[in-house]
Amino acid sequence: MTTDVPGLPGSRRRGRRPPRRAASALAERWTRIDGVDVFYRESPARPDAPAMMHVHGFGLSGRYLLPTAERLRDEFHTLVPDLPGFGRSGRAVDPLDVPDLAHAAARFLDDRHVTSATLVGNSMGCPVICEFAYRYPERLDRAVLVAPAGGAYNQPLRRAVRQLARDGVREPVGMLRVAAPDYLRFGVPSTVRMFRALTRYPSLDRLLALKVPTLVVIGDRDPLMPSPDRVREVASRTDNHVLVVIMKGAAHAINFSNPGELAHVIRQFMADQPIVDDPEEPGYSESYEIHRGTLHPHHGSQT
Prior knowledge:
The structure is a single chain. The chain has a ten-stranded mixed beta sheet, with helices on both faces. It is an alpha/beta fold. The longest helix has 14 residues, at about 100-110. It has a single domain (about 25-290), classed as Rossmann fold (3-Layer(aba) Sandwich). It has ten helices and ten strands. Helix 2 crosses helix 3. The protein starts with a strand and ends in an 11-residue tail after the last strand. Helix content is about 35%, strand content about 20%.
């Protein structure tokens, strides 16, 4: 059963405190999935609006995804959950690994009566989407993988920590205010367990096995990502629908730092249009294709 955030009309659950002011232009709600309280944000859904769920990264809540998600709320039935164990949501009895999180994402969509959706992930959210595609292929319309992380390039843990430290100074100051409480709430034991789960997950195999139109967006200042040449080489191993886009000036948390440009790229991808820079954000960031799979629709010229 879904309820609104406590303190707002319709709320009946106890023991949940709302923030002092709404953190999102989306409606903030609670539901209960497999015995776990799950917090999420949702846009008003038009009957004809395709569903789009945004999946957060390692140790974080969905809050930092909101700048991009809010820009797409009028075009899509937009959902931004805190997966179990993250953010304001409760914890499962047993710690969740990547397949468990993919299952939780599917159960959340069940709860919202969504049969299929486009999933937009950042960082660890990308392996979760790849696992979702592996387990529930009929439920994934398209995949948007923003700064996918968790593979061999981010291992061992000490290397990932150094990469995160370098990324921290490249992100907007506002990102620290959002991320710090989430990381503290997630805790060190959960961080170690989740990292171990990621090291055991076959990220590359799952990525190359995707059968749906897939957009990969990477920032050219992201220390957690390999070079664009390496990304292009990996993408060329498959003839599927992968479209790879570089965003100049962006680091790792693109959904937070470059939301206007990212939303613009997602709209073009969803409409099977060539990726061109957003004219409304001159000089802020620039996006261009570096790979377009042989099965991905070609419309017009590439930039």
